[in-house]
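Attaching the record inline, Q. Sequence:
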Amino acid sequence: MAEKKIIECVPNFSEGRDMDKIKQITGAIESVSGVKLLDVDPGRDTNRTVVTFVGSPDDVIEAAFLAIKKASEIINMSEHHGEHPRMGATDVCPLIPVSGITMEETVIYARKLAERIGLDLGIAVYCYEQAAFSKERRNLAYCRSGEYEGLRKKLSDPLWKPDFGPAAFNERSGATAVGARDFLVAFNVNLNTTSVRRANAIAYDVREKGRPKRDGNSVTGKIVRDENGETVMIPGSLKSVKAIGWYIEEYGMAQISMNLTDISVTPVHIAFDEVCRKAEARGIRVTGSELVGLIPLKSMIDAGRYFLAKQERSAGVPDEELVRIAVRSMGLDEITSFKPEDKIIEYVMAGNGKPNLAGMSLKEFMDTTASESPAPGGGSVSAYLGALGTSLGTMVANLSSHKRGWDHRWKEFSDWAETGKYIQNDLLKLVDEDTLAFNEIMNAFSLPKKSEEEKKTREIAVQEATKHAALIPFKVMITAYGAFDLLKKMVKDGNPGSVTDAGVGALALRSCIKGAYMNVRINASSIKDSDFALKLITEGREIEEKAEADEKEIIRFVEEKLVNKI
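Structure, as predicted:
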């Protein structure tokens, strides 16, 4: 199943002193239900406020536009003064892909936002970073050159024609830069020293920029310069990393303070381990680390997998356990308690959401299913059966990965366990999606039907909702069927003492698929698009038949092994 698309938006507004105006801007953001406001950081001296919010791409674009519109109404740039460079009421507005979305897709959204600002608000917009249309405009400082005071003259120059909006000076709102950039993680590594000089030496070892090259002695030698008089640098070991050493009096320790500007190039766990190596080479120990701001869940999951792999342990464990492994391995809670619900973007976003079915206890799910409400029903229960069946296969893989005498096979079984975990997670999402799909049908039936036009609109809505409701259990079938390979492998080659667990998993999977197919058929019977309905029923039947054959094959293996044990 596709990962949910989430992007972050970090607009900078040219107002840091009037809290009423700032609240009006953030209120515009919070008026969009699909976004979550994460941080508001006003600066009096800079007279600038940095706002951070996240959500689905369309919702974030809407919230950003409303905030920029509000800023254009209440901020008068002709009266603005502050220490920070700026050229507009909304100075910059970068979009950052967080999960389930590529940079290329994010660029499309950034340009879509920029076009809307230019057309609807009459503000000149320059696209920067990844969203830039030219190499020069990738650099934000270049786009902002001359600032607000030089904007009138700049806009009269054809070379400075905006990417979107009028090439005319907007005295009140100035101009805005809209961009797309990688997610930046602020990450500090703690050292068992108070020496800023030694911390800086480690920072220079790892940061991409590195350190100046010197003649002779690497510390006191003369700095080498090229033919243009520029300092020649010796690059550090980590790409897309900026770093400096400093002393934090509050903590009584020195730190390596890093900005990881592209975590797809250098993720946090690689940065942490590299600092450990460079510190040890200088006789210094890393004692822990500190995450400043938020981090995507994937970064923590990847870190957990990395450290488990170093131990030759299976990574096919729940996400929560992978996060705990990452926190313990990097000492993220040395200075302050690391609370995933406050530090991981996806968890922060889910914090105010209503409890879902997948998040209920077994008893809560059972009691909710047994209530008078028709949902959750057979579709959700079928998906949950599939998740349980798959989890049994995952369990056998995890047990096999650290079975005594099988140490050389840990990676083989870890890979199988991870496969199982992905299928489990997808099926758990479908537990809720099935119930949501049913609710969509009920909502469609509740639409008014007084006029002929309303009747037509209602009928279209009912049919679309019914198609969606038929597709969800079909997805359950496809997803659950993918777990049969795992169970076959575990029955044949997994931990012999757990063969019956894999057998029970096969029974659950077959029941899941058969139950889901019943739901496909009952929903398909109400679909007027006969080609659509027939395709679902035909392909669903094929999956059901293959599931029954695979289940019989697995149970036969189980029975054979049980006979041999007697």
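The chain has a mean pLDDT of 92. The chain has 18 helices and 13 strands.

More tomorrow.
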